[in-house]
Design a protein that fits this description.
Blueprint: E1 3-9, H1 16-29, E2 34-37, E3 40-41, E4 45-46, E5 52-53, H2 55-64, E6 76-77, H3 84-91, H4 97-110, E7 113-121, E8 125-127, E9 133-134, H5 135-142, E10 146-151, H6 156-169, E11 174-180, H7 187-200, E12 204-208, H8 219-224
Parallel strand pairs: 1-7, 1-10, 2-7, 3-6, 10-11, 11-12
Antiparallel strand pairs: 4-5, 8-9
Helix pairs in contact: 1-2, 4-5, 6-7
Length: 227
């Protein structure tokens, strides 16, 4: 049975998918059998045949070069660029946690390292009208350890602090923080790094610069994040 890790973010467009792609690329380059998973994905475009292309999954696959098929990466794919709970209201096919967990179990059976990415921030709802379901339910049922991805820029102290506080209060295991778009000579980014470590007592796993094609984490340290 494979090991797993959940990638959450301080919000939308902070770099969760980018970081996930670099992590999977590192695992793949080190000959590890790795897979990507996202319970629900919205904001996707249609192919010429009318089928929705899971954009985040395709990005991860293209960057990481893992051999996993797109069809096994996400059971719920929506076109509307809104939260999955609203997208399913507009398009139908609401998220069923049983289906999500069945797909995850199959991946855990066939791969050694499963990197699961969240939709938006930690409180993103996956379903609402036919019973409430959120990312936190998925994390709990999957018994995931997590890492937090944050943009290194202005506002991140508050975003990281609130995300970590909520997750710690709810009993989620957080293995650390990865900062995206980090600029080494930027005094704001340096201070954000210091303050986030101070406020959360969490380790910083990696600093990802804009345009990085690899993630600077030793492979054994990376593998140790998965449980």
């Amino acid at each position: 049975m494979g090991k797993k890790l959940f990638i959450t973010g301080t919000g939308t467009d902070v770099g969760k998918t980018y970081v996930s792609a670099l992590i999977l690329k590192k695992l793949n380059q080190n000959k590890e059998k790795a897979a990507y998973y996202k319970a629900a994905m919205s904001g996707n475009i249609k192919a010429k045949n009318g089928e929705l292309i899971p954009g985040d999954a395709k990005f991860v696959k293209d960057i990481s070069q893992i051999d996993q098929s797109l069809q096994t990466m996400c059971p719920y794919v929506y076109e509307a660029a809104v939260s999955p709970h609203l997208a399913s209201r507009l398009e139908g096919n609401p998220v069923d946690i049983k289906v999500v967990m069945q797909h995850l179990t199959r991946l855990l059976t066939n791969y050694d390292y499963i990197t699961a990415e969240g939709s938006g921030g930690i409180l993103c709802p996956l379903k609402f009208d036919e019973g409430e379901l959120s990312l936190t339910d998925f994390i709990k049922q999957g018994n995931f350890p997590s890492i937090i991805v944050a943009d290194a820029g202005l506002g991140t102290i508050n975003y990281v602090g609130l995300t970590a506080y909520y997750m710690q209060k709810e009993g989620f295991k957080i293995n650390g923080i990865i900062f995206n778009n980090f600029e080494q000579d930027n005094i704001l980014h340096q201070d954000n790094l210091f303050m986030c470590k101070h406020l959360t007592s969490l380790p910083v796993i990696a600093l990802v610069k804009k345009g990085d094609t690899d993630i600077d984490i030793p492979i054994e340290k990376l593998k140790a994040l998965y449980e």
